[in-house]
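ok trying again, last paste got cut off:
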Amino acid sequence: MLLLTTLATGGAVASCSSDEEPNRLDPGDASLEAWTPTEEAGSFDDGGADALSDAEPVLDAAPFDAGPRPVECTSAPCATELVTTFAPIESDRSEGFCALLNDGTVACWGANGYGQLGRGPDAGTLDSPTAMHVTGLSDIAHLNHTCAIDKSGGAWCWGRGPFLQNDAGLVTSESAPVKLALPAAKRVAVGLNVGCAVVDDGVLCWGRNSNAQLAPLSEANISAVFLPRPMSFPSGAPVRDVFVGNGSFAVREDGRMSTWGARTSLARATPLTPDPYPTDIQLAGISSIDVTLDNGCATVAGVGYCWGRAIVTSAVNSVIRVLPEAVATPEPIVQISTTRAFVTTELGDTIQRPQRWCAVGVSGDVYCWGYNASGQAGDGTKTDAFDRAVKVKGLPEPANQVRTMPDATCALLTNGKVYCWGSNNNGQLGNGVLRAPSLVPQEVVLP
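nice, full thing came through this time. structure:
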């Protein structure tokens, strides 16, 4: 199995021209010529950024500075950003996706049990295999699950979450976007019970404190709900983005990242359970990150790292992965997406469904690893891809980004089209057909 490890840092992103020939590396890039996969890898040690184990070879390569190939819109509709919807209850396995379109509107498809599609109260809560506009949104600049930032800094959310719609800061369900009572924001992220936003003065967070994501735990505040409050961070570069699961993640302008909250989610070792103190992890030069309730993955210098819940189904490896571990990819990657892990009962048997991940290579090819019973790996089979990541077949253009959920995956291509594959129980393929799965990518019909 090919595993990649590197200590090279540097978060610079240089976009590749989308008129390059897809599905191969650019031979003119010296950093790519020097890239060589290794046979072994391990996890980061808290002893420092250069403290990998002796058994963990380092790439003999120049610094990697490639980024995702850009989206070039030549016709409408054209998507420029792709996200998953957020399952609003921990036991909820429903799936859906949203896309930011180049006209500043947002379109969503898939599960809608809690208003995740943002179509308003008259639309009901039925799942939909047809991508339609989220009602009332315009001039949107950025998405994070079912939240959006408009070009004036307004933060909008829909579905179910702590959307600051009451004085107590309690979770509400909203079938149409509501504006959060926040100062002008650059980024916003909302989890099951906690939200955070990047504003001019730093980071504000709010919600329920059950995982110490808002304050050190005490008998008085373990179930307390906090209104927006400023967070304190170690000295360093300003925060550029935030992500929220059972832990919270603040990514700085220089690619460093501070984490706090549930111990198993933090990508660092800590004696505190949970840990309320934002602390930098050892990974540096982070260029992309994806976070779920219990798992996270990030890219550093062309290499993917993941952490969190058990990664495979065997008892030998069914342990929490506290520290980031390098993942195997056939080429350097520029973006990665991951999923939750959970336990399910199928035909009377209790089965652990491990985390999956999919990634975009520097060539624009997409690779997926993990469970594949619904064809969510995209290689045209239902064979699990635990031995190595498999290449997604049938994408007509290079990918800009990929987003995955446990049973389905979608990719945004450089021409602004979105393709999805895998399960379609919630209409998450967006092809107008409900429940019919696909082992190969299907184009989403964008509005």
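cool. The chain is about 0% helix and 40% strand. The chain has one domain: 30-443.
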